[in-house]
TrEMBL record:
Superkingdom as given in the UniProt entry: Bacteria
Domain DUF559: 9-106
CDD domains according to UniProt: Endonuclease_DUF559 (cd01038)
Protein name: DUF559 domain-containing protein
PANTHER family in the record: BLL0828 PROTEIN
InterPro entries: DUF559, Endonuclease_DUF559_bact, Restrct_endonuc-II-like
Coiled-coil zones: none
Pfam families: DUF559
């Protein structure tokens, strides 16, 4: 992917966040996770993480319904494996988990 395409995709993802991403971002931005600083739609090699905390080396991904398809499960595993090779921890939540049980997500 060319750098300009990557930057356009990054901008589009930030502008078109899902309801669950916005909901979690508000909580993270208000330091509801022990004061750790998170970035949203943060570039990591060839991927863009939904949320990233440098200090914790943590990536949080919020998965919509299409992540349940066989093809997407395989792609998500490849993505997670690639990110974890960078020494980062990846945690995945569904939209429903974020919207219906934010306190558990933040714990």
């Amino acid at each position: 992917m060319l750098r300009q395409e990557f930057l356009r995709m990054h901008k589009k993802l930030r502008e078109n966040a899902t309801e669950a991403e916005e909901f979690l971002w508000l909580a993270l931005r208000e330091n509801q996770l022990d004061g750790y600083k998170f970035r949203r739609q943060h570039p990591l090699s060839i991927y863009i993480a939904d949320f990233y905390c440098h200090k914790l080396k943590l990536v949080i991904e919020i998965d919509g319904g299409y992540h349940k398809t066989k093809e997407q499960i395989i792609l998500d595993k490849e993505r997670t494996d690639t990110i974890e090779l960078q020494g980062l921890k990846v945690i995945r939540f569904t939209n429903e988990e974020v919207l219906l049980n934010l306190s558990n997500v933040l714990n």
